[in-house]
Amino acid sequence: MEATPAIAIALVVLLPFVAAALAPLVYRLVGDFTGWVVALVPVAGFVALWGLLGRISGGEIITVAWPWAPSWGLELSFLIDGLSLTFALTIAGIGAFILLYSGAYLKGHKQGRFLGFLLAFMGAMQGLVLADNLVALYLFWELTSVASFLLIGFDHTRQAARRAAIQALLVTGFGGLALLAAGVTIYAISGGWELSAAGDLTSHLAYPLLVGLVLLAAFTKSAQLPFHFWLPNAMEAPTPVSAYLHSATMVQGGVYLVARMTPHLGGEAIWNLTLMAFGGATLLWGAIAALRQTDLKQMLAQTTLASLGLLILLLGAGTELAVTAAVLYFIAHALYKAGLFLVVGALDHGTGTRDITMLGGLRDPMTLSFIGTIMASAAMFGLPPLLGFFAKEEMYAALAIGQFESLLALVALVLGNALLGAVGLALLIKPFMGQLLPTPIEPHEAPVAMLAGPIAMGVLGIFLGFVPTLAGQLAVAPATSAILGVPVETHLKFSVDLLGPAFWLSLATWVLAIGLFLRLDLGRSLLRRAATTIGWSFDIGFDWLYFGIVRLAGAVTRLLHHGRLELYLFVVFALLVVAAIGPLWLLDGLPRGPQTLDLRFYEWGLVGLAVLGVVTVVCARSRLFAILALGVQGLAVALLYLVFGAPDLSFTQFMVEILSVVILALVMTRLDLDTADRRPLEDWARDGGVALLGGLAVTILLWAVIEGPFDVRLSTFFNAHSVPIAHGHNVVNVILVDFRGLDTLGEISVVMTAGIAMLALIRGARRSKRAEIAPVEPAPQRKRRAARKAAA
């Protein structure tokens, strides 16, 4: 029975988060079988999505939307088309094998927390590729960064893992801010939050800005130059994380974003040439760097950089053949790269090392791992009839068209694929062929749960290579249609054009790959010598920038947070003056002020009382007298409330002033209240000046408000709703207790907290004073008392 799209979205996006919360409990119940149990979550999502494959391959686009924030016009909307379905099926399918593998890989360890993080990572990535709402897309984008931070730094006791996790979070988080800005810009242009309704954005004035923001987000997530350095460092994560992150999740998020934005931003030179330039540079950088490594995981990490660059390059080319090649290569790469990472984990598990120079002759003791490596490496090498071969043929055919930029890209592709082929040969031949070398532990095969993934994905890659037409109809053509925005028919078939340029370029790639493999040790030595001579890397540059920002933040903190309260208050009130008067002055909104002061005699008396209080505070000869005089201004305000018909406010003001004076007097009892505070003339002038300016600024602001038209909407609302909603005739009390209830509760909580703190200070002062006057017990008596206590 086919699941409805809403149920499919719930199973794919929401169920992993629920399972993540329950994973620790599942581990307590079933122990080391947790991997088998939680693997059912992505299996359920895969089955639900597979049921929609027929509709999507037929050209249908499915949308699902749930109410989210209607007042803001936000819906939690999801879009299922050929592109999102291809990514979602890949994430779910490979995720099932990753969870199964993790249970066996971490056998004997507490797996609940790790599998919970992995499931949350899966849910975030599924939400990213299926979200149509721009706000939801941004939230899922950032969730993938947070989940990867937790997974990369899972072994938080190691400094290298902590550093790699922080580095990945900072770099991808920086790109996330760019994506947020791009989403807001698209909303401002299109008037809606759904990306599918944004339309063509290439003609808008903000198009260059949008291209920069989107590509910044994509390049940081997919580790394109110059943001590539975080990806190899992410190998500090456990092997299942590396396999998942590099094959179907996280780093593919940027590739997905570029593909998803192509109908809206693609087709222009600034988009296409930027993608091709950065993609080609990243392809060659990663492929060359892979030859320099001896750690198997690092070799695979660098080849992932190269593959991501290759995908970005093909999407930048933008033709039907190039995009078809990109989709085909994405599927082939996900299968063989996940398989290779899982085999490397099996090698590490079975031998105790990942150093390729320490491995050899493992084909007999680890036969199943050898078979899995054969299938994955052959796909990486691009041998027919595997799916990787047809992807390579497509990309060569797409760019062999004679244009200058296409020829440059074609050279980069041939050289990059040859380098990747050399690494694929090294991964197959070095560990498994030749004589058996001594390893830290006796070589033994990994358990079936760790080998199921490499074998199944290798077989699937071979099967799809024999039926490329089926893969084209079900996945490649629908995804290509979604990226280009026009219907595309599949042209893939099981055949090899021996006379076409693509095959001869493939042949040249294989020959070059074999030659590079035969000179692998020499190439590694030369590359390491060059790196030592240069002595700088983007990774070191990140450290310079990171610690420079930390030192700058420390210097600014020491400058601004110097611990002098009087300067803090001076800055606050000075900025208050600027904020109050500055906009009025710049916008020509300064009030005219009252022309005459028509005050009655008692009103003049209240003004005089307030002025008398100010003068008394300033001129007080003792602290106690100044504290008592502080209440005079409050008394004048309370009387003003009373005169103008607000007895409840007047009563409240009386209570506040009485409590303020009493509390200040209690707190200040530890000071000499008979002493006056003498201040230097410059302090007196500075603080007095800013106080006068502050009073003047507030007065001018109030005058500006009074001179404007009176808006009766709030008073009308409260008068109309106080009795029917809050059942109170005293509007002020209703506002405080009902309409502003939480605000009032917060104010009461602050006052209560301050009172508790002051009470603790007063009691602490009393205890310290008693301790100062308490007699010191002689040492012999203390010893006798301690002996009696011990005997008792």
Automatic annotation (TrEMBL):
It is found in: Cell membrane; Membrane. GO terms for molecular function: antiporter activity. GO terms for cellular component: plasma membrane. Pfam families: MbhD (PF13244), MbhE (PF20501), Proton_antipo_M (PF00361), Proton_antipo_N (PF00662). Residues 609-671 form the MrpA C-terminal/MbhD domain. Residues 72-114 form the NADH-Ubiquinone oxidoreductase (complex I) chain 5 N-terminal domain. The chain crosses the membrane at residues 6-26, 33-56, 76-100, 112-129, 135-154, 166-189, 201-220, 241-258, 270-291, 303-321, 368-387, 407-428, 448-471, 502-520, 567-587, 599-618, 625-644, 650-668, 689-706, 744-762. Residues 131-409 form the NADH:quinone oxidoreductase/Mrp antiporter transmembrane domain. Keywords: Antiport, Cell membrane, Ion transport, Membrane, Transmembrane, Transmembrane helix, Transport. One of its GO terms (biological process) is monoatomic ion transport. Residues 773-792 are annotated as: Disordered. Residues 781-792 have a biased composition (Basic residues). Residues 685-770 form the MrpA C-terminal/MbhE domain. It comes from the Bacteria. InterPro entries: CPA3_Na-H_Antiporter_A, MrpA_C/MbhD, MrpA_C/MbhE, ND/Mrp_TM, Nuo/plastoQ_OxRdtase_6_NuoJ, Proton_antipo_N. It is a multi-pass membrane protein. This is Na(+)/H(+) antiporter subunit A. The lineage of its organism: Bacteria, Pseudomonadati, Pseudomonadota, Alphaproteobacteria, Hyphomicrobiales.
